[in-house]
Design brief:
The protein contains 12 helices and 14 strands. The protein folds into 2 domains: about 140 residues, 3-Layer(aba) Sandwich (Rossmann fold), CATH 3.40.50; about 160 residues, Dihydrodipicolinate Reductase, domain 2, CATH 3.30.360. Helices cover about 35% and strands about 20% of the residues. Bound molecules: NADPH dihydro-nicotinamide-adenine-dinucleotide phosphate (NDP) and N-acetyl-L-glutamyl 5-phosphate (X2W). N-acetyl-L-glutamyl 5-phosphate binds next to β10.
Length: about 350
């Protein structure tokens, strides 16, 4: 297949380049830019020298529709709202890594993103691309809204307990930590080296744009779920997210019952790995891979369950999951091009 990337010079784009290079069904990758027309991709990313040789092209719908079968948008908010509908109408599939099409209610999007929403008619056409829980819809989608990085770790961690209604719905607290690549490639006063080295920060307290995304999906799974507490933190590392999630169990559970529930629900999911009793995942154990690793504990003293869910934010949290969706949409084996052993140490 021929695929296009809009936003190839960003971090999501760079990870798409890495993963698509070894995808057996991708013969051609076309790179589009909003600001660097004619520049060779190697000028932006010397690490792809000798692998990708091409120049960046301007974003032109007439050529996109004849040049590629699928377009990945690894672009900031607002771009997908502008282009996805027109691209999909012209023919190519669209996989949008941004948050533009994730929130169903335009008013909620506008409240949290502080910008105008995409039209409701476009949002209605987009399918939320969390394959483990939405595979059937993804198979028939023309436009995929790829989940946010924090929601991916959080939702995969919470799904078995929420879906089996084993927790006190009022009790959900999500404490999430991310490496700085989650903020993208553009320099920022919050994430540059001297701000983040030897530092650990909480940010956007009770205001993060992933809160409505997490709530929307949890409420689809169980309408009784109220609003949740979610706080993101920045950690001095490049890749990785750890979501540590605290919930109160409705009844006493043994460690074995808890683990069996997760192992049962994820039995056929190649990218979700459940740790054994007493083992908890670290971000390095999924580094560079499409895995989501989950550790669990039930505290008999408090009746609380702790769920530890880790992903690589640029792989399972963005470009890897986007390719997983691409595989499902096109009838390829879901792990095609994604059989990556985490890089360790
Ligand atoms: N980094 C991560 O871990 C994750 C990122 N995401 C989301 O994926 C998207 C991309 O993120 P990331 O790669 O980190 O971001 P970056 O800031 O690193 O890159 C974004 C790219 O978008 C392009 N761009 C900027 N403005 C426009 C425009 N007006 N029209 C078209 N293209 C534009 C730029 O390329 P050029 O100037 O060449 O056009 C730029 O390189 C974002 O929405 C982000 O929130 C989602 C999950 C995780
Ligand atoms: C560390 C960091 O800054 N992370 C980003 C999340 C990246 C992401 O998933 O953003 P989208 O929802 O736009 O896809 C943030 O907190 O905004």
């Amino acid at each position: 297949m021929r695929v296009g990337i809009i936003g190839a010079t960003g971090y999501g784009g760079a990870e798409l380049l890495r993963l698509l290079h070894q995808h057996p069904h991708v013969q051609e990758v076309v790179l589009y830019t909003s600001s660097k027309e004619g520049m060779n991709i190697q000028e932006s990313y010397p690490h792809v020298s000798g692998i990708y040789e091409q120049n960046l092209q301007s974003i032109d719908l007439t050529s996109i529709k004849t040049e590629v079968d699928t377009v990945f948008l690894a672009t900031p908010p607002g771009v997908s709202a502008e282009f996805s509908g027109a691209i999909a109408e012209a023919g190519p599939q669209v996989i949008d890594l941004s948050g533009d099409l994730r929130i169903r209610d335009p008013k909620v999007y506008e409240e949290w993103y502080k910008r105008q929403s995409a039209p409701a008619s476009l949002i209605d056409k987009a399918v939320y691309g969390l394959p483990e829980w939405n595979r059937e819809e993804i198979k028939h989608a023309r436009i995929i809204s790829n989940p946010g990085c924090y929601p991916t770790a959080t939702l995969l961690g919470l799904a078995p307990l929420v879906k089996s209604q084993l927790i006190d719905v009022e009790s959900i607290i999500i404490d999430a930590k991310s490496g700085t690549s989650g903020a993208g490639r553009s320099p920022s006063a919050i994430t540059h080296f001297s701000e983040m080295n030897e530092n650990f920060k909480i940010y956007q307290i009770n205001q993060h744009k992933h809160i409505p995304e997490i709530e929307q999906i949890l409420k689809e799974w169980d309408e009784l779920i109220p609003n949740v507490t979610f706080q993101p933190h920045l950690v001095p590392m490049v890749r990785g997210i750890m979501a540590t999630i605290y919930v109160k169990a409705k009844k006493k559970l043994s460690e074995k019952e808890l683990r069996d529930l997760y192992k049962g629900m994820y039995a056929n999911e190649g990218f979700v790995r459940i740790r054994e009793e007493g083992q908890y995942p670290a971000t390095k154990e999924v580094y560079g891979s499409n895995y989501c690793d989950i550790g669990l504990s039930y505290d008999v003293r408090t009746g609380r369950i702790t769920i530890v869910s880790v992903i690589d934010n640029v792989v399972k949290g963005a470009s890897g999951q986007a390719i997983q969706n691409f595989n499902i949409m096109n009838g390829f084996e879901e792990n095609t091009g994604l059989q990556l052993v985490p890089m360790y140490p």
